[in-house]
Amino acid sequence: MSPPLLQPAGTGTAALLRISRLRIALPQGEIAGITAAAEVEGGDAQPFSVGWVTHANQRWPVYCVSPDLSLLIVIPAERNACVVLAANSGFLGIMCDEAASVEVAPGQRQALPPAMRLPESPVLGLIALEDGEVACASSAQGLAAYVSRLTGS
Predict the structure, then answer these.
(1) How far is the C-alpha of 43 from the C-alpha of 41, rounded, in Å?
(2) What's the maximum distance between 2 C-alpha atoms anywhere in the chain?
(3) Residue 3: inside a domain
């Protein structure tokens, strides 16, 4: 059985991250904070990360992904925000162009057909948005595991 597309299931509220033309919907409760891109410390970055964000009095790595979910080592100018995700036993930052809160009705959520599921992808399903666009449903845990596989950590 696959994990639910959004939690908590009763609220229907999701955080919608825009990364260029890619939209990723995450459970709202998995967002620990949002900071301006200017607040990301660039020096002394971990391999494959673009810097650090301070959250809960600690520094956490920040990653930047392209619309095809490959890692970038340079932050594009349009990445205005760093979303801090609660995953595993800590946090990580993901750079995005913008982040917003949206309501998602159960009828808007669709599981991926078996032929489209990739074993290591953070994409759990699709969400039809009111503006006619589609978002990829994911989770902080899924994104953290995906980044971990890409970085070999």
Answers:
(1) 6
(2) 45
(3) no
